[in-house]
Amino acid sequence: MELIKTTRGGYKLCFEGYTYTKVKENRITKHWKCSGRHKYNCLVTIKTDVNVSRILNEKKYDDAHTHCPDYVAIEALKVRNSIKEDSRTNRPSVMAPPLARG
Ligand SMILES: [Zn+2]
Question: Which is it for strands 2-5 and 11-15: parallel, antiparallel or unpaired?
Answer without folding.
Answer: antiparallel
